[in-house]
Amino acid sequence: MDEPQIYARLAEIFNDVFDDESIAVTPELSAKDVDGWDSLTHIRLLLTVEKTFKTRFTTSEIGKLENVGDLVALIKAHV
Amino acid sequence: MNPLFAELQWLPRAPRDFADRLKAVASSTDPAGRELQALARHALNLNQLTKLAKAIDRVRSEGKSLDPLTPFRLAVLSNSTIDLIAPALAASAARHGIALEVIQPAYDQVAQEALTPDSRVNASKPDAVLLALDHRSLPLRLSPGDAEASAAVVEGAIGYLQALRNGIKANSNALCIFQTFPPPPEPLFGSLDRALPGTMRNLIDGINRELAGLVLGWGDVLLDVAALAETVGLSDWHNPQLWNMAKFSFSDELIPLYADHVARTVAAIRGKSRKVLILDLDNTVWGGVIGDDGLEGIKIAQGDATGEAHLAVQRLALELRQRGIVLAVSSKNTDEVAREPFEKHPEMLLKLEHIAVFQANWNDKATNIQAIAEELSLGLDAMVFLDDNPVERGLVRKLLPQVAVPELPEDPAWYARTLAAAGYFEAVTFASEDLKRAGFYQDNARRASLQKQAGGVDAYLASLDMTITFQPFDATGRARIVQLINKSNQYNLTTRRYTDPEVVAAENDPEVFTLQVRLADIFGDNGMISVVICRPGVVGDWEIDTWLMSCRVLGRKVEHMVLREILEHARAAGISKLSGTYKPTDRNKLVVDHYAKLGFAKVAEEESGVTRWELMVEGVEPESAPMKVVSQGFSPMKENSLR
Question: The domain B3-269 belongs to what CATH superfamily?
Fold first, then answer.
């Protein structure tokens, strides 16, 4: 799966998790940019990503995530 | 993960336009409850449940009605993170007809919340408190091989749980819902863990066993999370990564399943469990089509894989009937053809005598199911319809959305398990009346046919040789009283729901007049069929807080006899006036004229449809009915003044 495809899937996931169609999913996007992106929504986001891409991340992989760019790189490494 | 359970496969998949329909609910001015419930009746994932809960919150915060959902306030005490679970609970509750308000105190404040009188949980006066605790909340010290230490640990854990209960009872008197504890799947010795005292598995087994017995004795409610976790698999249930990262007690993928189990338990507390199982015949009760394959061709024998699958359905239906679920048949067949296997096939477990209403004809199934509901005097929301044919299922769901219609997999081997997994018949208590209930409804059908022959209703009533027994509330009748209060919808003047502790309070209050009514006749004992609570109003006045009756004794003039009894006690207590209220719901139109028929005068009619009625105690002589009256157990003082 290439990056544009991953971003497209992520856009759907963000829309679903945050219930907000207006979020532009860019590499720089991070929790401070989105209303309601708190620690629990973060978990829900990652669980949805894991489910969608049919993979499981390790605790340390999750701990290193800083922004959407990191997440996309992690997904690429997994699928 | 097993998809039947993890994905709630008995529910239809969510529609494509799920999100749009939710948005439409939020912006609509129509009452939202029905559409929210319709959306909730799909298999929803955690994100969908979260969205649905948000929509419910929005409706509530705008002050709009969630009717016909029944309000319920549930406080959740947990040693784990429940922030993602709370919305799932509210959304799943809508599926079961409950408008759930979740009270969620700060993380891991279990003992403080239970024991402090003005804590958030206690101050909110919840209907029930869910103790969503796992083994990490208990003081469990392992002591392998040391039976004495092990017993002390079990006792300590039970003591802790009991202390929480005592705190909640003392401070808010809420019903407590206790969860059993799923053992973690990390063995210490291996198989020996089961047998050796003081291992984790051994301790948790002991605690679960003891807790289960205690909870029922306390009149509280048990949620067997250990059984649920074992059903899906302990290694799928426990997720150490999620515990470490976010203090989730169990896997996120099982939150929808857990939430549905909490919701069905709450619904059962409110008497919303279903009462009737309606069976399709061809390819559901037996393999094949009786009209085409004939008696010799249908598959129903032991030794035939397909036949055994259908026998499993029959066995489950019979077991349900034994615990009081009424069975009915709806089949597209000629009546004689459909009855033939019941009468002549030696391997059939189900017999005609087990079926309360048998509808085999060529009408559509929605019409038939409606006829069944009418014949049984039960609401459509008491019905479950089991049919292998997706077209029939779709039709019934569309025309009769109140009926529960489980999705079924292609292979009949899984039918029985799917039906059982859906939990339609969840019960939180079991009274001896339940055992007989399926029979009651069947006797009713027989009474109805006798009525057709006997001609005059009065002559028929006299021929029933009825005995009516009046008693005040007592411990023996309590489970059934609570059950009737929480599930009677149709013959119920005010539809007030009370928990076990609230009923005990009424029972013990000398100012409150309570009545439990039993009826027996030539066909047998109907058990308890009516409940009345009168509370003191203005001086010399009894306010009839609750008056309900089981619909299976409709048309017997029981209500007239109940009024006579109330009047007798009112006179003895020096009461001069009875005040009654009719509070309309979408189910109790049956009793709109209840008070008028009993000679009460209407004194007020509110815009909401609520009507208020009065009857002066002196000088009235309500109509009597041909039955023997037994009045017992009332305090001797009252009895003396009565005789």
Answer: SGNH hydrolase (3.40.50.1110)
